[in-house]
Batch of 3 targets.
Target 1
Amino acid sequence: MGRLTVNNVSRTFYKGNGAPTIALSDITLEIKDKEFVCFIGPSGCGKTTLLRIIAGLDTPTSGEILLDGTKISVPDAKRGMVFQEYSLFPWRTVIDNIAFGPQMQGKNKNESLKIAEKYLGLVGLEQFKNSYPYELSGGMRQRVAIARALANDPKVLIMDEPFGALDAQTRNILQHELLEIWRKNNITILFVTHSMDEAVFLADRIVVMSARPGKIVDIIDVDLPHLRDRTAPESNELRNHVLKLLAKEREK
Amino acid sequence: MKINIKNAIHNRELEAISLLTVIVMWQLVADLLVKNKLFLPSFIDVVLSFLKVIKNGALYTDISVSLLHFLIGMFLAFVIGLPIGIIMGWFKGANHIFDPVIEILRPIPPLAWIPFAIIWFGLTHQSAGFVVFIGAVFPIIINTYTGFKSVPVVYVEAAKVLGCMRDQNLIRYVALPSALPSIAAGIRIAMGVGWMCLVAAEMFGVSNNGLGYKIWWHYHLHQMDFVLVYMLLLGFLGLLIDRVFRYYVDDRLLKWRLGIVM
Ligand SMILES: Nc1ncnc2c1ncn2[C@@H]1O[C@H](COP(=O)(O)OP(=O)(O)O)[C@@H](O)[C@H]1O
Ligand SMILES: [Mg+2]
């Protein structure tokens, strides 16, 4: 199961001079098991902060996060994360990067490699097995990062603008692949993006956020079946709706 | 590609010609201008002396004794410097404990320790090793520390969300490999400094054998051709050690860095 409960989570950062930045203000959100939720909002509205707290990399100033009813505070293998910047270990080959998680779970080398092979196949990079990250394109690196996160068999996959640095075409391909993986692996996905198009194409629900202080403006259900036609009238309508919401926030 | 190979051959030729020119000029200057073996032994004098030390076996003893001193010092510098650098770089606050001591000891030139080396260890191999150690340990500490300080946060966080939580594992699987280029650079600097300290320590009589000791010994006998033999040997050996290290560490252990501009 991968049901996430975000209860009244706030996070305030203090600058060097003591001035507070309210990155998140009283966020409450319930994410169902196997749901695909996209977070969208202007930069600085606390999307990364929220995901980092859910991953256990940051602690909220107040409030709590529950995974299947159990409070979480530190990272663990049940929640995988894919970062916006390239986060593959450059000193490990592709296969050793993917095998890292299972290895840390205490599996022996052979077992870890076997699991890694499986996920390497899932992202279709078998022939780059023994390459080092510097030999891969940006799209391939994010594929490996996804495979690495999945190799731990997480219940929740947290993705912070994973395709942000990729060109439009690679991005589209990876979006398709991600949906495929999501369906096969029965996981909950939290996905931050600043692309309307991406959110409308991927999400079951879109969480629209606003900045200073970061809070949720609206949560939109996307009741369109996958695979979605990016140019269908329903998609356009949704996009316009989100755009208007974000524009209204900007005017404030 | 073709042009590159051609250039390489061409460069090799140029290097050989340059070296030959220097040797010929050296010989000519020594024979025709200086005409004094004490002030400037000729190239041929040096070659003949070199053959002599090979024949009487002194060369092998001296090289192995010097390498022993060097290894003792480098080994100690590594097993003491690396953990200190790791602790300083990884655990918050630890550098405040070590820093004052290091900052006081580091500016003392390693050779200033020679009297204490002799008092503490006598005229032993350990004594020479100790002076090498003093010279080599600080570059290793400092480069390990900087390497650990500059481990990208994203690698540490990626490891944490993959279930690698304990400091011991984060150091072993993330920080150490990430800092390895910096540590390797530190070891290379340390070997350079250590090599210099070695010669000085041996010349000061910290030991009764070795390449540095022989320079001083032959100087007292006014055999400057032998002095030059040992000088050149020290240069070549230093270069060789650096090359071997480069080959094994930079080209093999650090080949993942190929894509990174250095
Ligand atoms: N470690 C930090 N220290 C201080 N301020 C931070 C830190 N992380 C984020 N912030 C601030 O919190 C706010 C939200 O940041 P972030 O979560 O990165 O936004 P987003 O990902 O939506 O662009 C920003 O104003 C940012 O400056
Ligand atoms: Mg962000």
Note: The beta strands of chain A are 4-14, 20-31, 36-40, 62-67, 70-71, 79-82, 156-160, 188-192, 205-210, 215-221.
Target 2
Amino acid sequence: MRYARDVAIVAFAQTAHRRSSQDVSETEMLLPVLREVLDRAGLAPGEPGFTCSGSSDYLAGRPFSFTMTLDGVGAWPPVAESHVEMDGAWALHEAWVELLTGAADTALVYAYGKSSAGDLGAVLTRQLDPYYTAPLWPGPVDLAALQAQALIDAGETDEQALADIAARSRTAARANPHARLRGPVPMGDHVAGPLRTGDCPPVSDGAAALVLAAGDTARRMCERPAWIRGMDHRTDPQGLGLRDLTDAPSARLAAEHAGAFDAPVDTAEIHAPFTAQEVILRKALRLGDDVSVNPSGGALAADPVMATGLIRFGEAAVRVHRGESDRALAHATSGPCLQQNLVGVLEGESR
Amino acid sequence: MSEILTAPLVVEFPFTRSLGPVQSAFLTGLRERVVLGVRTTDGRVLVPPVEYDPRTADEIRELVEVGATGTVTTWAWNPAPRPRQPLATPFAWVLVTLDGADTALLHALDAPGPDAVRTGMRVRVRWAAERTGAITDIACFEPHESGGAGPATPHTGVFADPVTGITTPARLDYTYAPGRAQSRHLAALARHTTIGERCPACRRVYVPPRGACPTCGVATGEQVEVGPRGTVTTYCVVNIKARNAAIDVPYVYAHIALDGADLALHGRIAGIPCDQVRMGLRVEPVWTEGARHPDHYRPTGEPDAAYDTYKELL
Ligand SMILES: [Zn+2]
């Protein structure tokens, strides 16, 4: 698919993700990241043509909590701004569309989550179907464990293979100064069998931001922009019992519409908070052994909820910027058991 | 650097939700110990039933009764149940395809341990003693060896006194942490002083400080003591008592620009009849013992401030 304009990720920044950031407000956590990403792009606060953020009031426990962090972007006098109550990857999609329309040439996208404010296991039950599922209060690990067991029953993985995914991810994170878990950790006991502590993401507070720019503006801001060749998001049915939990059809469909299957990718940053979900996503996104999957360590190394998906795009983009990747896939998920999926394809121009 | 404050924050919300005709029949059925599903246009039976076919988006209304026995399609052992989950003792989360259904229902399985659970095992519904028309009318599933109960049978979905809505109470517990700037501000208030923070770029002083200048998008770090006196920039007379408010009406609620601040804060004005409060009135805070905020502001007796001195702060 050809788009009206070429749009690229030109800069990315993230916090050093931590278990708890109670010493700072969300705005205070976000400010250094915003400053860093704008500096990299050569933009002043308030200068981006569009601003879009992703966060959740349920994490903060306060309504309209995102309005506070607007202080950090220089939002007065008023800027063109939007917010998604989702992972920042969906804010990125909105900003990308905004730039494609020609309404702006640059966009600031940011996301943050302070999981430490509440009990993440309880908070995430509130995103479930309110009639049949949420009244039972199943947590995210419980539901991911149902998915992992289905995958084991189908003969597609086993506990050892899952432990290998955990170890590989966290070993890769040794090279990632922002990760919470930098190196393998013991697999530990079952949190919800068959998933052990090591199969689960570390609860993290953190923030991330990136800058999008169109055409020549992007070339001015970045030596090797990560051009967005396509992006799409899809969803599977809400009822868990309506789905084949060993597959992620919406991820496959999003990848297809993003053009991910048109040519091979060399790198993939995929948003798989639980080890078993990497197995499913590798299959759905057709990632072979020749693809470098989650060189950052992925969500298993740091999981600042609401920013984790956006970070996949940032991590993929910086590899393109550095010339380590020519064509990368970035993926974000939302909801239980990979219910919603967003896929983008990033490319660097040939050197 | 002063201590970082935290405080418990409890958010409770009793959502009241109306039900569509299919959901109403299903949940009323549970109250009557009958499990209903809905048949899609391509003949599959969905349990729990939905109002629209997720594949075709067809409106689906053909109700059928399925068995209270079924087969586990996947499971997860929950060694440490959390508050409000179906069972207080360790249990298995299960997806169960009930006999006659083509899709699975999420619930809990009461089993002695993970060794007693496997995919493919047969189970049956254990009904709650008290049923109201909710998914929790199924207390849980329990192991039960039995053959299949046969195909789904047509059902009108009609019951006496149908359930048309549900109330789903929810409670989430947080620890609120206001961060550096607000912690410093609150700590100063405890000493009966008010501090703002100055923007290093535009030099404006924000009270209460939130850690960033919304105009410049930069961190504010320099603390500045402001007040205690200030000027009423605008106000209103409140004549309707808010629920649970301890203050008698009428009273005056005002924006007050403390001396040295570039942002007005909110406060109550007392010690002067409501109809004599005016823009430009000079006021000072009145503290009560042990309070973290001024109780109210009262006139200082100074001449009113000139409009030009506060017009930018309106
Ligand atoms: Zn300023």
Note: The longest helix of chain A spans residues 26-41.
Target 3
Amino acid sequence: MSKRYNFAAVLSAVVLICCGALILNQNVNAAGEGKITGTVKLDGPAPHMKGIDMGKDPYCAKAHANDPAHLETYVVGADGGLANVVVYISEGLSGSAAAESSATEPVFDQKNCMYTPHVLGLTVEQKFKVTTSDQTTHNIHPLPNPMTGNIPWNQSQPPGAAPVEKSWKAPEMIPVQCNIHPWMHGWFAVVKGPHATSDTKGTYTISNVPAGNYTVTAWQEAAGTQTQKVTVAAGGAGSANFTFKPK
Amino acid sequence: MHDMSAPAAHHGAPTSFIRKHVFSLDHKVIGKQYYALALLAALIGMALSWIMRIHLGWGNFAIPGLHLLSSTGAPGNVLTPEYYLQLMTMHGTIMVFFVLTTAPFAAFGNFFLPIQTGAEDMPFPHFNMMSFWVTFVGFWVLIASFFVGDGPTLGGWTQYAPLSAIGSVGGPGQGLGVVLWATSIAIFCIGQLLGSLNFITTTLDMRCKGMSLMRLPLTAWAWFITSVMGLTAFAVLMPACILLILDHVAGTSFFVASNLVINDQVLPHSGGSTLLWQHLFWFFGHPEVYIAIVPGMGIVSHVLITNMRKPMLSHRVLIYSMAALAVLSYMVYGHHMFVSGMNPVSSLAFSFPTLVITIPSTIVVLMWLGSLYGSKLQINSASLFSLGFISMFISGGVSGFFLAQPSIDIMLHATYFVVGHFHLVMGVAAMFGIFAGTYFWFPKMTGRMMSEPLGKAHFWLSFVGAYCIFMPFHYLGIAGNVRRYQAFTDDYLIPLIPVHKFITIAALITGFAQLIFVYNLIYSRFKGPVETDNPWQGTSLEWSTATPPPHNNFGATMPVVYHDPYQYSVEGASSDFVMQTSPEKINNPNEEK
Amino acid sequence: MAKIFAVTIILIAIASAVPIVMHMWPMPQDISTHGALIDEQYADTMLEAGISFLASQFLLAFFIWKFSAPRPGERVKNFPGGATGLVAAAFLLVGTEVLALGVFGTKAWASVYLTPPAANAVPVQVQAGQFAFYFRYPGPDGTFGPIHPEQISEANANFFGLDTTHDQDSKDDIVAAEMAIPVNREIHLLMHSKDVGHSFFVPELRIQQDFVPGLDVSVHFTATKVGRYEIVCTQLCGLGHYNMKAYLEVKSQEDYDAWIKQQSALQ
Ligand code: HEM
Ligand SMILES: [Cu+2]
Ligand SMILES: [Cu+2]
């Protein structure tokens, strides 16, 4: 009998130590890495975003009966903060950091016949989920440039269907559309390495950035890209603010 | 040793297993191979129709194991909209090409045409062997599309361009799936062209002594007429498929117009014609439905004559009617395109021959009915299915009156009315023709009898079941139920859903009845009672040879024909029937010379 | 067995006719000016086809019943008049029947397709694309601006690829996801497909017409009843085919004018 207890005790000790080592290890890593923060603004007044006529599908029209939907090409916050801008490190990353991808699976949800988020930042080979919260069928039709190595797909998702799980092979800004609801339009922003997407205040934070000198690129679906040089000290924070002009 | 100088048809009996049963030159073996292929295809096609029907009746029903077929097409065992269409396309393609063309035409025709004409074999046995194996390859190319890329094409058996020609941007299966589809069909066409060539030559050149054209049985005539249609129709479809493949792989734009936009991207095609594909396809497609049904007409006439103990009212009128159907079938193809956007005057021009084609069809039906009058009808599985064929052909035929008129077609085009129409007149009728032929000729093909009780059970369930499935399709269509929909979400379609549920139940029951047939077929092949050479007391040449027929069909002496094929109940004759090979002198003023 | 079979055929024939005679699943009600001709043609055809159907099935059943149990020694008989009589009957009966249907049917067809639209017909353009319809009204200038395929951007709600900065005619064009039309006025519908084959079907309007990619076609019709109807696609166009629809709003002239004004403000 006692032999068995001994074994169990040793086993749990081993497991505990291993777990502890894992956690510590992570902390050590995180402590050594810095971040890049900043704000993205839009210069000038927010462009007029057309309203969306969802008359085709009564379900969608009803969901927006009291809250008319608008295009999301420019989503501008109260003090000019520009949302849905993907900021990523375009130069200066070592190979291993570039290949790193987060363990959580980002979710691209179809809700009230719109995409949430409108732009989903992803790293290469990172798995993500497409889900639906709607009681109407959507099809998810991303159309990457075939020359990049990304393979296009086109798949329906009826109400209540299981999430669609996918990943992308190469960095690319991939437009995604629902053909059943042609106004539904979004982006998969596939990049290498750490990245962040600005919120409605225009702020973003790229974490897990090792110390180094970088070029940071900010991409906006209509206004294009801008780059800046940023230096991050070990455990410190770099900063890069961007201002886009509407096209 | 082979005598290399001998004409091809006089090949010796093979001795090795491979040459006897696999790469056989014997038309009888090839006929059976075609039959086996058709049976396999029919079972797959039917299973697909079950999945479709279940989905249409109960859209969220999880069919256990379905995700094994495609994890993206049936996540959680429930069909996605695209996979429904993909299965529907495969169902239609498999049924039309690999069942309805192979079984009544290639299978029975191969086995019996040379025997009925009194030939030793087909004139080009190597072509004949190729015909089957090419078709076989075509079938597996089609089936392969289930397992590659994003699955089979979803474009429907008609594969309308430009959806079929723009590649995978058009939807799942529209890239590799279409290429495999078109390759499969092009290969299939080659097989049927080779077959048709043999059929025509056999009929024209290989008849035995005394066998004039008019002394050929109606089945032989039906196969002959069908093969002439096949030669012209498949010769158009094959190049059309090749052009379609080129649009995919060679960057051509035969079927794609300029400036088409999908997902905000302009497609890299220009200058093609959308309607070109429809013209090419239907120039094949309409004769094709006659290719599917004319052999059935021949089989049903042949079976009924034997079971009525009385020839058709007029042998010649039936032949001329079938020939008229064949000729007219090329002039009516535009009735599939009334609202396609072609010139509305052509719609009227195509409408008249379509209405005219009802005349030979009516004559055929009246010949059957008129011949039934005053007959001594025997009821057995074969004659039941033949009579069932007539009933189905009538029911499917009358809906043709509607679809032949462009003005009414405005309401009925692309609705379930069309689906009901072609399933009855082409699908079910032709299947009944296949069943009639099977019950009738099984003893000649295998030497054993099929079980009559099982055959009758099969018939009753199929006859009543098919009506329960396909009659309601017409009502749905009249109410405006669009076809090729995987669910019915429009307000005006929702009241029709109970009808769909009824149809699904009927389809499942009818489908299971077909398993009785398969069981009967397999069981009787090995355990059925052994039969004599002429169990039905028939008169044509297949009944005067041994069972199963020897390698060269007739043994030591080739037959000599003295009579026309259907000398039943001849007054003054020594028995109820006089075989074609019987030298007995009879006094029949109507006899064909 | 033969007698049961005969009875079954008769029962099936009658049962098949019942839903038609009882109008259990009727054609949707007609709201067009030309529809009456189609409906009449349909009713005539139903009568003739129905009679042919019942008569032939009954005859088949009757002959099966009658001739399946011959007494021993009975001789076969020939149909009175033989083949010639039947062939003549087919030519006369069916021939005149189909000729009549064909000739009268031409009138209904011509009323839709072979007459030009009235000069004052309201022009509306419909564009079909995977898997939605969009509608365009020419605005006060009465002309549609040109379509620039490369400028089509569903992402920016430029469904027709209009260049409103450069093309004068496009500036006042009105684009909507629903089709509103005034009642009792002729509509000239111009049909354009953006990508693959589609079809425009409104059962109540008695109109069905395919879109031909690369070739613009048109139809014209007049709706006679105010209401909301469904426009569905009947040409297999891809995975969302069953979901491709739009609504047709037939409005009184005032409501229509108000709608146009309201839409124009939204552009
Ligand atoms: C077991 C009996 C069968 C059932 C329950 C069945 C059911 C169906 C259904 C539900 C469809 C889809 C209709 C649509 O939405 O357009 C269909 C299509 C079709 N079926 Fe069948 N079917 C059966 C047998 C057959 C047979 C024997 C044939 C042989 C001709 C056939 C040929 C076709 C064709 C050509 C299509 C059209 C496919 C397309 O639209 O591309 N079916 N069938
Ligand atoms: Cu959608
Ligand atoms: Cu469609």
Note: Helices of chain C lie at 2-21, 35-67, 82-113, 253-266.
